[in-house]
Specification:
Layout: H1 2-33, H2 45-51, H3 62-66, E1 72-75, H4 78-83, E2 94-96, H5 104-117, E3 122-127, H6 157-160, H7 163-173, H8 193-202, H9 204-217, H10 229-235, H11 255-272, E4 275-280, H12 285-293, H13 297-314, E5 320-322, H14 352-363, E6 370-371, H15 376-393, H16 395-409
Length: about 400
């Protein structure tokens, strides 16, 4: 009996030792090979050359920034990432460094990183309301400067054992270049083939509903005071997005701190003589209805005022464009059949045709979409009227949005 216990103990010891050794090996490979440039602790030239223009799920364009002669960046979330083409920007050599699900803090990090490695002359900045909300935390990204004293290595054990990462490591060690992202072009633009394939399978109407439901489930627009902790646990999105730093979802960065990040972006551009083109991103009016359903429409309108106030304090020569509602475009009808839409893939993401219109407006002498302290209230009121008309004509969609908000937000 004692002999059997000794054998089992020895087996368990050997097994745990092997497991720890394997884990240590995997972690060492991650740190040394560093396929997505997250740690930057070891620099082996032969390995660095093999990485190529790696983009890991849209969260890492550090290689692109560090190896470009561009003097202009496009900054924003996946809306700008998919909708704004660098080649459509005249007078500058531009790359798209937008970040899916990025908060305003992430935008500040990316701009600081790009400013460190590039000679930036211009920034086209697609601003989304969700960037400033407490529920939109920082994304797990790699835009950390080497001289930052409080640098953190943010990678979970699950991430370390990711099959995709291990495949990338093996490819690098085998001398194969890590494949450039299937999601992005070489200039950082997010490819639209996923939306195109979804449209061809389903048409636009299911895409809109699917996207809107997922957005509500992510609880971005939700006001925490409108639900209890018990309801939050019961309705929380089952696939939470990775966050940077503290993963306790009850501790969010405040709206005021996020507005400070916006001010920091203004300050950096002003101090470095960088021409800033800030614009509120286009969305379909159904997305504005999600804001309204979450009881944030007045906050959304006030947010525009606060952006203008921050700009006026820092640099009054900067114009702010508001494309959040474009009459005849933002309210484009969603076909029930599989007919293609001209301007949108779904309620959040606009097509490159609309991105071209945005760029044409900003690069011309047109003042049609420039907002200021004198006209912003009238523009907001027009948007409110358009929203009321939408609600009157689209009662089935309105009901779905309301029901989803009740289910996931306990409104």
């Amino acid at each position: 009996m004692n002999q059997e216990k000794k054998s089992l103990s020895l087996f368990a010891l050997i097994f745990l030792s092997c497991l720890l050794l394997l884990s240590a090996l995997v972690i060492a490979l991650h740190v040394i090979v560093d396929p997505d440039n997250r740690y930057n602790l070891v620099n082996i030239p032969s390995i660095e050359k093999r990485k190529g223009a790696l983009v890991e799920s849209g969260k890492n364009k550090t290689h692109l920034i560090q190896n470009t002669d561009a003097n202009c960046i496009i900054l924003g979330t996946s809306r700008s990432e998919a909708g704004i083409l660098p080649e459509s920007i005249s007078d500058y050599n531009c790359i798209n460094v937008s970040l899916m699900h990025g908060s305003i803090h992430d935008m500040q990090d990316i701009l600081n990183f790009a400013d460190h490695y590039m000679d930036i002359k211009s920034v086209f900045f697609g601003i989304d309301y969700a960037m400033f909300l407490p529920n939109e935390d920082k994304v797990l990204h790699s835009y950390t400067l080497p001289n930052q004293e409080d640098k953190e290595i943010n990678a979970s054990f699950t991430d370390m054992l990711s099959v995709t990462k291990l495949i990338d490591i093996i490819r690098v060690l085998a001398g194969e270049p890590v494949k450039s992202s299937d999601i992005h072009e070489d200039n950082g633009v997010r490819k639209t083939n996923r939306w195109q394939e979804s449209f061809e399978r389903n048409g636009h109407a299911p895409m809109f509903l699917h996207n809107e439901r997922r957005f509500i489930m992510r609880e971005i627009y939700n006001k925490p005071t409108n639900r209890t902790q018990e309801t939050r646990k019961r309705t929380q999105y089952k696939r939470p997005h990775k966050k940077l730093g503290n993963n306790n979802k009850t501790q969010h960065i405040s709206y005021q701190n996020k507005m400070q990040s916006f001010n920091a972006i203004l300050k950096l551009c002003h101090s470095k003589g960088i021409k800033l083109y800030p614009f509120i991103s286009p969305v379909h009016i159904r997305q504005i209805h999600l804001i309204d359903t979450s009881d944030r429409l007045n906050d959304f309108f006030q947010w525009k005022h606060e952006l203008l106030e921050q700009i006026a304090k820092r640099d009054s020569s900067i114009d702010l464009w508001d494309f959040s509602y474009i009459q005849g475009i933002s309210d484009e009808a969603v076909p029930k059949d599989r007919s293609p839409m001209q301007w949108y893939w779904e309620s959040q993401h606009y097509k490159q045709a609309l991105g071209q219109l945005v760029l044409d407006e900003m690069q011309s002498q047109s003042t049609t979409f420039i907002i200021n302290a004198k006209n912003v209230d009238a523009i907001n009121e027009n948007q409110r009227i358009a929203l009321q008309e939408f609600k009157h004509s689209n009662k089935r969609v309105v009901k779905k949005h309301v029901n989803w908000n009740k289910r996931y937000h306990a409104l």
